[in-house]
């Protein structure tokens, strides 16, 4: 594992794409970030998760007391995360921050997919800004104010600019073939309460 920060209280790793944060169901889904870290630091405990397809900064606590403290920081939105992504097409906007405020709900017949639901969906807010435009793609910085499952992926899809390589939400096989992986990376982890800010650029 690529450990980017280590101290007496916490561990931050750069999780590769395609690796689960925590074990899934079944013997074939036991290889995951927390198990790999616990092999060296058995006291490590998960604090939050990244989608299997997403790469980037993942925070782990060293011991249950720190896990409770960091979990409270997340619950009270004292932890700030930012992501970098490449989305399809020319996303309108500028370097000024814009918002997507669309409620999300699990699409149970098609889970783990999520969907926008204005009646029973949970409030979900994403801030985003355009960093650069390429021929058929736009590089964006994303800040999830809330932390719903697949929030960034569904919100970008709702704007008509799905994240490149998103096989789960791609509309056809051609979209799936645009990249060998989901081009979404957790690039910044800011913990003001701990006076810690970590940056990790993506490989794309």
Strand count: 12
As a percent range, the share of helical residues equals 10-25%
Shape: globular
Query: What would you call the structural class?
Result: alpha+beta
Topology as H/E string? EEHEEHEEEEEEHHEE
Radius of gyration: 17 Å
Measured between the Cα atoms of the first and last residue, the distance is 19 Å
pLDDT < 50 runs, ≥5 residues: none
The major pleated sheet works out as: 10 strands, mixed
How many individual helices? 4
Beta-sheet strand percentage?
25-35%
**Average residue pLDDT:** 95
A few lines on this structure:
The chain is of the alpha+beta class. It has four helices and twelve strands. Strands 1, 2, 3, 4, 5, 6, 9, 10, 11 and 12 form a ten-stranded mixed beta sheet that branches.
Could you describe the 3D structure shown?
By secondary structure, this protein is α+β, with helices and mostly antiparallel strands. It has 4 helices and 12 strands. The strands form 2 sheets. Strands 1, 2, 3, 4, 5, 6, 9, 10, 11 and 12 form a 10-stranded mixed sheet that branches. A hairpin with a 3-residue loop joins strand 1 (2-6) and strand 2 (10-15). The chain is globular and about 45 Å long. The two termini are 19 Å apart. The model has no long low-confidence stretch (mean pLDDT 95).
Describe the structure using short key phrases:
single chain, 204 residues, alpha+beta, 10-stranded mixed sheet, two-stranded antiparallel sheet, 4 helices
Write the SSE topology:
Elements (H helix, E strand, L loop, with lengths): L1 E5 L3 E6 L17 H6 L5 E3 L8 E8 L1 H12 L4 E9 L9 E4 L2 E3 L7 E3 L8 E9 L3 E8 L6 H8 L14 H4 L7 E8 L4 E4 L5
Parallel strand pairs: 4-11
Antiparallel strand pairs: 1-2, 2-4, 3-4, 5-10, 5-11, 6-9, 7-8, 9-10, 11-12
